[in-house]
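Reopening: structure tokens for the zinc ion complex, inputs below.
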Amino acid sequence: MAEAAAADQSGKVVIKNIGLLLSGDIDQPVLQADTIVVQDGLIAAVGREKDVDTAQARTTIDCRQTCVAPGLIDSHVHPVFGDWTPRQSQLNWIDSMMHGGVTTMISAGEVHLPGRPKDIVGLKALAITAQRAFDNFRPGGVKVLAGAPVIEKGMVESDFKELADAGVKLLGEIGLGSVKGGTEAATMVKWARAHGIQSTIHTGGPSIPGSGLIDKDVVLEADADIIGHINGGHTALPEAHVCELCEKSQRAIEIVHNGNERVAIAAAKAALELKCPHRVILGTDGPAGSGVQPLGILRMVALLSSLANIPAELVFCFATGNTARLRQLNCGLIEVGRAADFVFMDRAQHTAGKTLLESVQLGDVPGIGMVMIDGLVRCTRSRNTPPATEVPVVH
Ligand SMILES: [Zn+2]
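Re-run output (same inputs, fresh job):
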């Protein structure tokens, strides 16, 4: 398994003969360029091959007219430690997600740790340990942003300061711990925000026995940065309440695979009607009772494009640039200076769609031909997607 050390440097990489370049930017989702130049893991140039410096590359990739997009970002996962999840006793699930095009994943809490501590010292220690462990270990090269404490009653502002000072940048889903009331959650969300920690709230019915309902009034009062799984995880709020959340809140609208699919479509449509598609981000919410979904983000892209009738090039932005901007990540967009995290795709063999975008709009997931993280090739033809019609060639 490719566990690349952070110290590995890509040198100069030239990616040429790109047939379709998706930018991740919802305001301009397709770029008129066929070449990307990477220097030591960062994008150094984007343009026409004749206009950029392609000389003396360590690695050259001929895309053979296939599509390049920013690596997909899963906004909502529940990792524990290493490339193992106790939730379904599964190994190598993160590497498998990489084969589904995911290059960054964001923890919504390490909630599945057997014996997870719920006392305040214990939950802080777990968060700091998880943040450190995934900073040091990247299964399949995937950037796992972890260390997301599940807040509990009794926490005070200095706890948030202490977490922030130790490098914690996320809260686990609010509502999975003892803090379930809107007023109490709002106070802690403000403390977190004041110390640079981003918050997510569980939305909808209980996920597993022991967790609780978080309704629209609690979500609005808590005012967390991310309306976590607005389509439920699993059980959704009534569709009208979900649309009301899209309208009354200005926060990120997170739609997940392990939620209600009908409400996923309604939430995406509501965001478009409200002219705020930049707020929509995608996650899987795996591992969970539904298992893990290596193709979960691609399946969400196909679902929303085909059944919410949203152009595929826009839906890819939900899983890339939107998330990067809302979560302040240096990936997710094809721009000079950003991380060279890419997924190389083509239409799946024998799809009814004549192009990659058309195939997605018809509901098919694309085939992945290569995944690159920090300018390093992490996999060639995916073991998990249907086979891509054409795949890039490395020179
Ligand atoms: Zn949840």
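The mean pLDDT is 96. The first helix runs from residue 93 to 98. Marking as resolved unless the reporter disagrees.
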